[in-house]
Amino acid sequence: MKKTFVWTLSNLFATLLLVLGLGLLIVALIISFGSRLGIEATVTALVLMLAGLVYLHPVPFKILVPMIGIISLGAGYATYFSAQQSWLASILAVLIVAAIISYGFSLRRTMKRRHSQWF
């Protein structure tokens, strides 16, 4: 059964976090690409976007997949410039972050299903 997306206060807050995170990420990449400030701003933007995904219920698939990709690539960018420009560390960071986020959202879905069966 597919849940429909309803605008609630939580979804509005999640959308605000996603928009702020994307805006900060774009500004950080344009203004200070590869600098320490750019890396810190990118990590902050990624945390904002991840929090936005957590608050978004139910997360539409067309939003979840691109956000997981953006967050993973951002983590790879931050790793690349923080780890002495190591491509291997960057690729590993992208794969690990994507796996953790994907697993986290499937785990949340499973917990909701099991919780609904407790009553």
Automatic annotation (TrEMBL):
<feature type="transmembrane region" description="Helical">
    <location>
        <begin position="87"/>
        <end position="105"/>
    </location>
</feature>
<feature type="transmembrane region" description="Helical">
    <location>
        <begin position="37"/>
        <end position="56"/>
    </location>
</feature>
<feature type="transmembrane region" description="Helical">
    <location>
        <begin position="12"/>
        <end position="31"/>
    </location>
</feature>
<feature type="transmembrane region" description="Helical">
    <location>
        <begin position="63"/>
        <end position="81"/>
    </location>
</feature>
<keyword id="KW-0472">Membrane</keyword>
<protein>
    <recommendedName>
        <fullName>Integral membrane protein</fullName>
    </recommendedName>
</protein>
<keyword id="KW-0812">Transmembrane</keyword>
<keyword id="KW-1133">Transmembrane helix</keyword>
